[in-house]
Amino acid sequence: MMKQELDTRDLYNLIQSEDRVIVFGYAPICANCQIAERMLNVAKEVVGFEYTPVDLNYHEAFINEFHVQSAPALLVFERGELIRSVYAFESVTKLVEILQK
């Protein structure tokens, strides 16, 4: 699972420039992160949204600023503000509910 990694500055620019940004924070060796991303991709097919995957190993300032507690993390930003943080990927149904709001 090779991803193009944003640098922290580009991540901040993305959050500030878009009306809504969904960030999926993960760690490559995290098994729960892989399961969560599969669930997120199913929810994405249902709801139709885009998300930005971010390897949390490379974004210490981001983690500290937004108080990211663990991986996997789903962070929803609206107009530059963090409005929702999700750490429990309970079900696809729950993710769909969260992301439709």
UniProtKB/TrEMBL annotation:
InterPro entries, per database record: Thioredoxin-like_sf, Thioredoxin_domain
Q: Name one Pfam family in it.
A: Thioredoxin
Q: Which residues form the Thioredoxin domain?
A: 14-100
Q: Which residues form a coiled coil?
A: none
Q: What is this protein called?
A: Thioredoxin family protein
